[in-house]
Amino acid sequence: MTSEILRSLDYEGIAVKRQRNFWALNFGLPHRNRIRLEPPLDFVPMIYPFFSQNDALRSKLIASKIYTAQHSTGLRLELGWRGSSFFLQNLIPLPIDQRITKEDLDRILDTVLK
Percentage of the chain with pLDDT > 90? Predict the structure, then answer.
């Protein structure tokens, strides 16, 4: 059953949607993201890595029903490099998966830019 589900997925279509959503956020947040992103054109992203020192942003996103992952403190300790805790605390992985619509992207952009 699992293999049937996996065979039914349109991997190329999924990749194109994820890339499109990534670039939409990247172009919409050029001066707000503190990370300079220059990935190769053929990559397939899982999330849009947004770095912000706005402590209220994650709460604003959740209040707008935009859910983001947050790395556990265990990962922060395992990384071990100085600044990893600060980096992971301020990294907000914005959703860009294939289910995200243009309206969703607009809502994400509006929330981040407010």
Answer: 53
